[in-house]
């Protein structure tokens, strides 16, 4: 048989039209959400040929088979073999659907035919080159491949462009759907990364389960198991697992680690947002790091800056700055905000400057600092609530430097309502523990009224700002506790001591086995069942310029002495309002001496009286 004269031709226009229609159906146009799903064309195409035998058109039922190859001769078969034992040929023409699967990826393909019409099939040569339709050139290198079912029972397609052959081809896993690799080389979308896209570049990977991920381009960038995340470009950037809704714009070697969702790195090199540091940002720079468990934190730029386990922390830039406390702020060079709420700024000096406690404001400015006020408040351009500490003093506008605004002499303690060493006299006395004959102290009490009970201590004098300026006061009590108790080897001067009563006893000053000096003192007691201006028990105080008074409706004693020998000079002692004794002396039988010079003693009942003790 002259089988070699059998020939087959391609009606290329019809074949090309079928390919173009298939491509158009795969790519689709704008979707209509109310319309039913479109039927998928699949991978089959319609092949039409012309068959002649010995120059004449064939009219017969023929045994035919068709195979696809990747070369004109030899090469490897692509896909399976399509057979038709009863191919109907009329006037030399036939039509048959051929399906070799999704093996048209842009690489060249050749069709090999074997046909026998009443005789054994003969392989026809040469193989027929399959050519694309003209409009298919508008998308060179593009191909569509089927994807996984979309979960709603609908078949899906993926689109791949760029290099689509050999070891450097771009790939989309069949287990992902509606995903795109638009171009580039060796780019890959892996399993379960549905509706994701790689724009181009080289070696970029959207790894398993990275739904709706995007890599625009660049080289060797990876999204690994994070949804709705994106890498703009750059080299070796990575978003790790469960860092959903995160983004790296570009740069080199930047990393958003596991579990840092909704975070971002704008660029730079070697920057890291560590695991569990969600909603954080690094703007750029080099080798900056937001360590683990640092939520809502930010590094603007700079180099080698670190936020470590600190929420709501900020480093705007600079070099080697560090924040380790919530709400901390560090800037400049080697500033360390190591405590919550600390604000630390370092100048260009190559040395650490660090916080030592929470909520500190620390600035190192070796070239000097200026604080310039604003129009409001006009009266106080700079207000400081607390203590200002300096090492070099304060320089005033006249050029003078003062290291202490009010130098305090040694062994002198100041009590004041504000600005002193203490705010109470009792606290000042308690603070002194080394008082002695060779080491005397002065407690100076600034103007004001101090409501407290005071017990003097030996070798410690108490001095006020004047009887009209400084006052110690207290209410009375049932047990007779005085407003002030005296001590040996101590002086009380230039102030008023008052007891306002309201109980059984109202005693202003009491000395028990104690003989202080009382100089320019006003001692006033009011409103007690027994009211004593000064009460002495086994004591010998010395009074100079003292005014002592007792006033109530009960028994009033300007001075009440029990076995005591006071010395009174240039003083006024009085009692009024009830049963009144100027000076009342009681004794258990021992001797005593009361010395009064240049003084006035007044009591409407008794001026000076001495009786055996009744209590």
Q: How would you describe the overall organization of this protein?
A:
- By secondary structure, the chain is mainly beta.
- The strands form eight sheets. Strands 38, 39, 40, 42, 43, 45, 47, 49, 50, 52, 53, 55 and 56 form a 13-stranded parallel beta sheet that branches.
- The protein is rod-shaped and about 165 Å long.
Mean pLDDT: 86
Largest sheet, in brief, is:
13 strands, parallel
Helix content: under 10%
Output the radius of gyration.
Answer: 52 Å
Strand content: 35-45%
Structural class, by secondary structure, is: mainly beta
Number of helices: 2
Cα-to-Cα separation, first versus last residue: 158 Å
The backbone outline, from C-alpha atoms, is rod-shaped
Low-confidence stretches: 1-6, 9-39
Strand segment count: 57
Concise summary:
By secondary structure, this protein is mainly beta.
List the helices and strands and how they pair.
Blueprint: E1 7-10, H1 12-27, E2 45-53, E3 56-57, E4 60-69, E5 82-89, E6 93-98, E7 110-116, E8 122-123, E9 128-129, E10 143-147, E11 156-160, E12 171-172, E13 180-181, E14 188-189, E15 197-198, E16 205-206, E17 214-215, E18 222-223, E19 230-231, E20 238-239, E21 247-248, E22 255-256, E23 264-265, E24 272-273, E25 281-282, E26 289-290, E27 298-299, E28 306-307, E29 314-315, E30 322-323, E31 329-332, E32 335-337, E33 343-346, E34 353-354, E35 361-363, E36 394-395, E37 401-402, E38 412-415, H2 425-431, E39 441-445, E40 448-451, E41 454-455, E42 460-464, E43 470-474, E44 484-485, E45 491-499, E46 505-512, E47 517-526, E48 530-537, E49 542-544, E50 547-551, E51 555-562, E52 567-569, E53 572-576, E54 579-586, E55 595-597, E56 600-603, E57 606-611
């Amino acid at each position: 048989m002259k089988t070699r004269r059998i020939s087959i031709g391609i009606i290329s226009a019809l074949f090309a039209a079928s390919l173009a229609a298939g491509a158009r159906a795969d790519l689709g146009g704008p979707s209509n959400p109310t319309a039913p799903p479109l039927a998928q064309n699949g991978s089959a195409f319609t092949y039409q040929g012309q068959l002649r035998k010995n120059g004449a058109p064939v009219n017969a039922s023929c045994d035919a088979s068709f195979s696809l190859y990747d070369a004109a001769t030899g090469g490897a078969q692509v896909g399976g073999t399509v057979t038709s034992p009863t191919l109907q040929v009329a006037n030399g023409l036939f039509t048959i659907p051929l399906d070799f699967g999704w093996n048209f990826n842009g690489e060249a393909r050749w069709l090999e035919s074997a046909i026998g019409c009443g005789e054994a099939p003969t392989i026809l040569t040469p193989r027929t080159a399959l050519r694309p339709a003209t409009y298919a050139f508008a998308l060179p290198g593009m191909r569509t491949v089927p994807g996984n079912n979309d979960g709603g029972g609908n078949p899906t397609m993926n689109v791949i462009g760029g290099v689509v052959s050999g070891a450097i081809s771009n790939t989309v896993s069949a287990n992902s759907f509606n995903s795109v690799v638009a171009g580039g080389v060796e780019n890959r979308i892996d399993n379960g990364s549905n509706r994701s896209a790689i724009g181009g570049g080289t070696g970029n990977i959207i790894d398993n389960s990275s739904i709706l991920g995007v890599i625009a381009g660049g080289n060797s960038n990876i999204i690994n198991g994070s949804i709705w995340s994106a890498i703009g470009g750059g080299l070796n950037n990575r978003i790790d697992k469960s860092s959903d809704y995160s983004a790296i714009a570009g740069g080199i070697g930047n990393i958003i680690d596991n579990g840092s969702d909704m975070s971002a790195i704008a660029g730079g090199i070697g920057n890291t947002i560590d695991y569990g540091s969600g909603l954080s940002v690094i703007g750029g720079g080099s080798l900056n790091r937001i360590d683990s468990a640092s939520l809502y934190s930010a590094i603007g730029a700079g180099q080698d800056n670190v936020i470590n386990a600190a929420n709501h922390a900020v480093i705007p830039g600079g070099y080697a700055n560090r924040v380790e406390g919530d709400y901390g702020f560090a800037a400049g060079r080697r500033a360390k905000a190591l405590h919550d709420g600390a604000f630390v700024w370092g100048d260009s000096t190559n040395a650490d400057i660090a916080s030592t406690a929470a909520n500190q404001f620390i600035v190192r400015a070796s070239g000097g600092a200026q604080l310039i006020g604003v129009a409001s408040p006009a009266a106080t351009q700079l207000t400081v609530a607390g203590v200002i500490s300096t090492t070099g003093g304060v320089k005033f506008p006249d050029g003078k430097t003062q290291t202490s605004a009010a130098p305090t002499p040694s062994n002198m303690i100041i009590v004041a309502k504000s600005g002193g060493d203490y705010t109470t006299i009792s606290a000042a006395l308690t603070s002194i523990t080394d008082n002695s004959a060779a080491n005397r102290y002065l407690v100076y009490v600034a103007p004001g009224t101090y409501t407290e009970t005071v017990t003097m201590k030996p070798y410690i004098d108490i001095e006020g700002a004047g009887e009209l300026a400084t006052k110690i006061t207290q209410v009375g009590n049932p047990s007779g506790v005085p407003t002030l108790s005296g001590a040996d080897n101590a002086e009380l001067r230039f102030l008023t001591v008052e007891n306002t009563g309201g109980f059984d006893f109202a005693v202003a000053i009491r000395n028990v086995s104690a003989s202080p000096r009382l100089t320019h003192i006003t001692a006033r007691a009011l409103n007690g069942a027994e009211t004593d201006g000064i009460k002495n028990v086994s004591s010998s105080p010395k009074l100079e310029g003292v005014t002592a008074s007792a006033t109530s409706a009960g028994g009033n004693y300007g001075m009440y002495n029990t076995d005591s020998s006071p010395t009174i000079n240039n003083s006024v002692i009085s009692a009024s309002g009830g049963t009144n004794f100027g000076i009342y002396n009681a004794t258990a039988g021992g001797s005593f001496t009361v010395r009064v010079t240049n003084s006035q003693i007044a009591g409407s009942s008794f001026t000076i009286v001495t009786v055996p003790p009744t209590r």
